[in-house]
C-alpha cells in the first residue's frame, strides 16, 4: 500500500460481493481496502479503529441498516466520508441516506472507472448522486443540500455567464433529461444539446451532468 492511497472500509454482508469489490479495488491505483465489515455494528467499530478515508456502505445489513450505521459513524467523526453503494433505488432510501450524512448514493451496477472517480472526489469533499436518483433529489431533496440562495446575476458572475439557452438546458438536466430528451424538448439537434451540456459542465467547473444538477440545486438556481 502506498502512503498516498485512499484507505477504504468496505461494508457488505454478502461475501461474494465483498470479495469481488475488494478484488476490483486491488486493481485500481490509489485505492486500498484496509478494513472490511459484514454488519452495521462491525462497520462502526472498524471505522473507530481503522480510520478509513472513505467508507463504502451497503444499506441492507443483517443487524442495523447501513443508514443507521452512517448516523453512528458521523457521530464518531462529523467529517466522515461515507458512500452508500446499493442495488436499490427508492425515494425513502435516497432521502434517508443523505439526511444521515452520506456523501454519495451509488447504484452497484455503476461503471468501475466512474466508481473510482466518485471515491476520489468524495474523499476530496464532493457530493455525488446517481443519475437515477437525481429526479428524486429534484423533487424532494432541496432541504438536504445547503443552499446559498444567490441571485441569478450573481450566479452568472460566478460561473462565466451561462447563456439563456444554457439555463434552459440546465433546468432540463436537473429534471433528469437525457441529451436526446433535451433536444426534443428544445427542438434542437442531439449534437447541439450535447454541446450545450458540455459547455455547462465546463462553466460550472464540475466533472459530469450529475454534479451539474447537484450544484444547481445547491446554489438555489432552480
List the main descriptive attributes of the protein structure presented here.
11 helices; Rossmann fold; 6-stranded parallel β-sheet; Arc Repressor Mutant, subunit A; 222 residues; alpha/beta
Number of separate structural domains: 2
Q: Largest beta sheet, briefly?
A: 6 strands, parallel
Return the CATH architecture of the largest domain: 3-Layer(aba) Sandwich
Order of helices and strands: EHEHEHEHEHEHHHHHH
DSSP summary: helix tally? 11
Helix content: 40-55%
Distance between the termini: 44 Å
CATH superfamily of the largest domain: Response regulator
Give the C-alpha Rg: 18 Å
CATH class of the largest domain: Alpha Beta
Shape descriptor = elongated
Structural class: alpha/beta
Question: What do we call the CATH topology of the largest domain?
Answer: Rossmann fold
Strand sequence of the main sheet, in spatial order? 2-1-3-4-5-6
Q: Strand tally, please?
A: 6
Mean pLDDT: 83
Strand content: 5-15%
Low-confidence stretches: 146-151
Amino acid at each position: 500500500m502506498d502512503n498516498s492511497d485512499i484507505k477504504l472500509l468496505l461494508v457488505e454482508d454478502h461475501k461474494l460481493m465483498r470479495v469481488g469489490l475488494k478484488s476490483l479495488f486491488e486493481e485500481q491505483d490509489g485505492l486500498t481496502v484496509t478494513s472490511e465489515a459484514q454488519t452495521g455494528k462491525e462497520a462502526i467499530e472498524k471505522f473507530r479503529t481503522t480510520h478509513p478515508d472513505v467508507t463504502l456502505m451497503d444499506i441492507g445489513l443483517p443487524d442495523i441498516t447501513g443508514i443507521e450505521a452512517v448516523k453512528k459513524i458521523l457521530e464518531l467523526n462529523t467529517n466522515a466520508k461515507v458512500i452508500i453503494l446499493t442495488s436499490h433505488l427508492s425515494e425513502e432510501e435516497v432521502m434517508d441516506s443523505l439526511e444521515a450524512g452520506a456523501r454519495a448514493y451509488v447504484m452497484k451496477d455503476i461503471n468501475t472507472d466512474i466508481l473510482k472517480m466518485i471515491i476520489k472526489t468524495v474523499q476530496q469533499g464532493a457530493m455525488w448522486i446517481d443519475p437515477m436518483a437525481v429526479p428524486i433529489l429534484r423533487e424532494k431533496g432541496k432541504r438536504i443540500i445547503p443552499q446559498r440562495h444567490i441571485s441569478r446575476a450573481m450566479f452568472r458572475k460566478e460561473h462565466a455567464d451561462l447563456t439563456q439557452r444554457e439555463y434552459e438546458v440546465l433546468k432540463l438536466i436537473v429534471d433528469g433529461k437525457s441529451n436526446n430528451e433535451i433536444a426534443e424538448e428544445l427542438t434542437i439537434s442531439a449534437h447541439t444539446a450535447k454541446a450545450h451540456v458540455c459547455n455547462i459542465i465546463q462553466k460550472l467547473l464540475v466533472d459530469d451532468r450529475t454534479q451539474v444538477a447537484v450544484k444547481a440545486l445547491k446554489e438555489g438556481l432552480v
